[in-house]
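Q: Structure for this?
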Amino acid sequence: MGASTAIELRNITKVFGSIVANKDVNLSVNRGEILSILGENGSGKTTLMNILSGIYFPDHGQILINGEEVVIRSPKDAFSYGIGMIHQHFKLVDVFSAAENIVLGLHEEKFNIKRSAEKIKAISEQYGFEIDPKKKIHEMSVSEKQTVEIIKVLYRGADILILDEPTAVLTPQETQKLFAVLRRMREDGKSIIIITHKLHEVLSLSDRVSVLRKGEYIGTVNTAETNESELTEMMVGKKISLNIRRDDPVDPQDRLTVNGLTCISRDGVKLLDNVSFTARSGEILGIAGIAGSGQRELLEAIAGLQKLNSGSIVYHNPKTGAEDDLRNKTPMQIRDLGVRLSFVPEDRLGMGLVGNMDIIDNMMLRSYRKGKTVFLERKPPRTLAERIIRDLEVVTPGATTPVRRLSGGNVQKVLVGREIASSPTVLMAAYPVRGLDINSSYLIYNLLNEQKQNGAAVIFVGEALDILIGLCDRIAVLGSGRITGMVDARNTTKEAIGLLMTKHDGGETNHG
Amino acid sequence: MAKTEKHVHEPLIHIVKRIAGMPAWQAWLIRIASVAAALLVCAVVTVLLTGENPLGVYKTMVEGAIGTERRVWNLLQNIAMLLCVSLAVTPAFRMRFWNIGAEGQVLIGGLATASCMLLLGNKLPTPLLFVVMIAASVVAGAVWGLIPAFFKANWNTNETLFTLMMNYIAIQVVSYFSYIWSNPKGSGAIGVINLNSQAGWFPAIGDQKYLLNILIVAVLTVVMYIYLRFSKHGYEIAVVGESENTARYIGINVKKVVIRTMLLSGALCGIAGLLLVSGTDHTINRDTAGGRGFTAIMVSWLAKFNPLYMILTSFILVFLQKGASEISTQFGLNDSFSEIITGIIIFFIIGSEFFINYSVRFRESKKGGQAK
């Protein structure tokens, strides 16, 4: 039995201050096996993997590799035991080629890029990677970069691969390709640990699933003997309904018409290319696309934060019936026009909130100009902060706690709470549930639905296609800065959207 | 599974960030302990280097700082001047605009004051003269602050280098005018201005010639605290400093805030120049600012940019400086020795922040490592 176990963790405990990140975690991975580690945010997945890869040292517990107790004190140690980590954020040198990145930092052999390229080719053929060793990283798509990262650890002879949320940045088609590669590695006898919170991936890929909850090890089950609802229950600790509510659109009227938006970056890349669509009141318009296809530029252009080269953004004011062009107006000018535009940006602590300020001062971001004196009024924001903490069940020691101390879900509740407090007519949300646990995600979906019911035009930029399909009324698909399709969310499939995401020629749009 | 009896080494020292922070009283306890530790180390160093009794040295230090009434007033005056410059750089620092050009801004403000005293001193009635002096020093300091801010706001130039360079320009400008206006002619120094008429000199209150300076700085301290903590401007400064992206997102005009704040920072430095020339020295030379523009950076940082704490930090620094210079004269040691003592104490004070933010844990005896 000992021979088939590649790596085993016994009673691993890691404490940060008063926070127990891992408590008595037991795990084992066999040779030729794919193990998923499933858990919500803050359940200790990343801490555990950082212990394995030598970034943290456990307070208690043992790590056994091939049945022998080992000490992993640095990433170098981890590497010498054949553990290779593929991080979520790639660590590659942009101006180097794939081959150069792969051999970077290796001292053992004489630098011979030709021989290296051959070895890379051999690895690629063995596992079915598609890679051009001479291609520069900055010319690569996200999935190609990930491939380079994986080959990098294989090149160094890793037998145990740890992948942290590898599918977060991939299209459904790319995900399938990755899974095929991982399966081939399994056949080759490698051990693979994959961290994820996507249940369907867990079920389709892994042999066994280990579940963590709030730092504690809940258990390991064989994938063949489990299902989504059981796993969710293990992960959250209670039964939860996985259906997203979707009501019919409420009296939809054109609220925001975007026409021919084009935005060209300093180095001549078209970030947005002739983007046109209409967002209607009382409905949720989804925006799908591979990360970096122009989503951020689009929302920031509407919010008055991105200069445009051409196009118009017409706001249909429901009160006055006036039609105002918001293009190249500052956020202040947009507000002065009476446009109640709310924006939940992707970068919550870097843009939507100020991490070092407390909840009250963060509420004040939107309202501090109110009042005639030169002094701030902290009372209304305090009331708002207390209301949001109560209504959205924000877990915090108090309203005067700096928001950076809150967990991801609670940070997002504070941000979304503030943005909907002004009863917006247009609400834009970029990846509002990224990194959130299931409970918080559903709370955010409900809040978006509520705004839809109140007649707001909601624009929802998302990454998980099943969520987009379940929540939205219509979905616009962005590919390389263009709208490659507009579909009716009630009559579409993930595959159809996935195809549109990778389509680069623009082409016909089939309105739903 | 085979029981392995391998020797397992845990790293000897762990450095762990205190995630939940630390209660204020504990933090102060650490700070006080660090000062005590500093004094201990200084005592050892004193004995080793000089063979003097360290307690005697400390006593001399305290006496040097507050031994006589005159010394107490001198101390307060020096605290006030340092605090004034520190107040001036603080709004910029809160905005993460590294204004290390306070030295130059103070000098230029002082030069403007001095030129008013020289050129208009005996021509204008006193109240009008003071109005002109105040206006001139404020404008001069503000302009010296505006130039780097303007370039930063429009072309994102590096404000640290820019403000630093402006110091050298200011020093040379002062040198130039020291020569032009030198008194007696050719001495290269301006000498005491209006020695007989005392035109443009701050009046003494009672018989304390520094009291007006001290009162002005006290008022400025409170005003600055309120401005940063409770005004809309102060809030905008904080948001821009924390995250320019957030500032843009909520529609703050970042350019405007940068320029406005540096105008304020420079203007306050100008006031410090006014207090130094009109309220203290009644003359100007290239050392009038006396390095306060740089010491102020430390005062402001140590106080975490809080004007009220800055009273304490400027007190500590000035006290050490005064005390240390007394040691070197009393014991016939050179200046370097007092600098060593000051350096050690400041090192410990700054080092204490590390122990407030992090805890250090040593390897525990190996018991939990074994499987049950």
